[in-house]
Amino acid sequence: MNNDILKTLLAQEDELQLRYFNNQTAWELGTLIKSAADQHAAPIAIEIYAFEQVLFSYFMPGTNKDNQDWINRKRQSVMRFSHSSYYTGQYNAAKNRDFETIPHLDPKQYCAHGGSFPLRIKNSGLIGAVTVSGLAQEVDHQMVIDALRKIIAVQAQEK
Q: 108-111: which pairs have CB atoms within 8 A and are 24 or more residues apart?
């Protein structure tokens, strides 16, 4: 895989850190993603997980139990490796490794498919993950990126 993709994904993680995060932020982030899904009639599942609890969860029409399994596995990967699930997949591809066959990882618990992104508060570290499941992994990832950019832009304008 191209090192430029890895650099871009790491730059996103560096860029997309929040000034603060609370239950209201989770609601706003989740509803932004849902609105984007509505506009494209995208059958996605959305989860905002922070402080060891699910703060927002929504499943669009056309989703199913498999989406919940994907969300759980993507989120667990972010929480374990502190990188987006898309980065983890691309990193392992660059190393010519199949993430799901790494001996010490249970593929029922972890996956390296795009769509889950670390939630970080500036100067504080990892607090959770925002996850989308239902579309191609790069599209799931981009939906999260777009919504986080909007939330961060609003926070930047606040005093």
A: 108/73, 109/72, 109/73, 109/76, 110/73, 110/76, 110/77, 110/80, 111/70, 111/73, 111/74, 111/77, 111/85
> pLDDT tens across 16-44, in order?
999 999 999 999 999 999 999 999 999 99
Structure confidence at residue 3 (pLDDT): 84
Single-letter amino acid, residue 2: N
The total number of structural domains in the chain stands at 1
Residue 22's region, left for phi above 0, alpha for psi from -120 to 50, else beta, is beta
Up-side HSE of residue 72: CA atoms within 13 Å toward CB?
9
Q: Which domain holds residue 75?
A: 3-157
Residue 75 belongs to domain with CATH number: 3.30.450.150
**pTM of the predicted protein model:** 0.95
* Chain segment 62-112, per-residue pLDDT in tens: 999 999 999 999 999 999 999 999 999 999 999 999 998 888 999 999 999
From CA 101, how far away is CA 84, in angstroms rounded?
Answer: 19
Structure token digits, residue 90: 């691309």
